[in-house]
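Weekly puzzle thread! Below is a chain. First person to post its structure in token form gets bragging rights.
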Amino acid sequence: MSIDDSDASDADELRGRLKRTEIQHAASSIPGRDIVQVLTEIPEGVSSGWHHHPGEEVGYIVAGTVRMEREDGPTQTLNAGDGFLIPPGVPHNATDLGPGTGHMLSTYIVESGQPIATLGR
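Winning reply:
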């Protein structure tokens, strides 16, 4: 999974705080789209940083409590077992509220050849 960023130091800092494991990546039956599934682990009190995706993010909170801020709507508090949907291009930020490390499983339906996430708003 690649993250595009105009400031490499921000991207390096983010990669040092979060653990992202790409589970699968395949071409979609939708022309020009890929499906990518990622498990993200966010330590307590850490934020993902504001970012956006070139397609939908369909997510599920596996463990923990996560505050999901979206530029286009209200902030949500999501608990283990909750799902969420982020539309294409919408800046958002996820913060693990604890206790312990939060785990999110996200499936992205994104433009082929584009980075999965771009940092910033």
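Puzzle host: Confirmed. Bonus trivia for everyone else. The mean pLDDT is 88.
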